[in-house]
Amino acid sequence: MSDLPTREKLYRAASALAFFTIAYNVLEGVVSTWFGAGDESLALFGFGLDSFVEVISGVGIWHMVRRQRGNADRDTFERTALRITGSGFYLLAAGLVISGGLDLYQGHAPTTTFWGIVISCISLLSMWLLMRLKVKVGTALGSQAMLADAACTRVCLYLSAILLLSSAGYQLTGIGWLDSAGALGISWFCLKEGREAFGKARGESCGCSCSCKGSDH
């Protein structure tokens, strides 16, 4: 019985991390799409849209933590959230590929990528800290699902790195296609995340760099 208060604290920490993930992605999405549209930076705009899709994923994770906390079975809400997330990632990937291809063909260049550099640096630090905390809590709980969520946060870290490279590259060289290349790199990760979301909805092992099932036992 002495272990129960500790596990309760860990579940509260897991819920807090899920809430923070949702709130952070909403803020990041708003700021990134705003500056991305204003600066005509497709990479930054796509990065912002990805953050909005991650919000849906975050809601699914928060619900999953609540379910595991009450030892409840996997329900329709969780599967629906995963399917919506997967569809969102697929649509975003398609949109970025088409837009990125057109920008490359037309030789379009953003006005500036300064805000892409700023936002990506903030995101790199935030996602690194968030990933470490999720790994710590997930390991303590023995939750493979939460460890998978931490691995998916690592994907967000990669997206931030792509945005930083493309934004800094353009800012330093003025080569316009670097922004489009960044958008295409983001689209590849969106496609991968979409496939994984549909796989988890079917109860398959997730592919976010670790093996897990949709529910822990």
Show the helix and strand layout.
Layout: H1 3-39, H2 42-69, H3 76-106, H4 114-141, H5 144-173, H6 177-201
Helix pairs in contact: 1-2, 1-4, 2-3, 2-5, 2-6, 3-6, 4-5, 5-6
CATH topology: Alpha-lytic protease prodomain-like
Q: What is the terminal-to-terminal distance?
A: 19 Å
Low-confidence stretches: 209-215
Q: By helix and strand content, what is the structural category?
A: mainly alpha
Give the helices and strands as they follow along the chain. HHHHHH
Describe the structure.
- It is a single chain.
- With 217 residues, the protein is mainly α.
- The protein has a single domain (3-201), classed as Alpha-lytic protease prodomain-like, CATH 1.20.1510.
- It has helices at residues 3-39, 42-69, 76-106, 114-141, 144-173, 177-201.
- It starts with a helix and ends in a 16-residue tail after the last helix.
Keywords:
217 residues, mainly alpha, 6 helices, elongated, single chain, 0% strand, Alpha-lytic protease prodomain-like
In short:
The chain has 217 residues and is mainly α. Helices cover 82% and strands 0% of the residues.
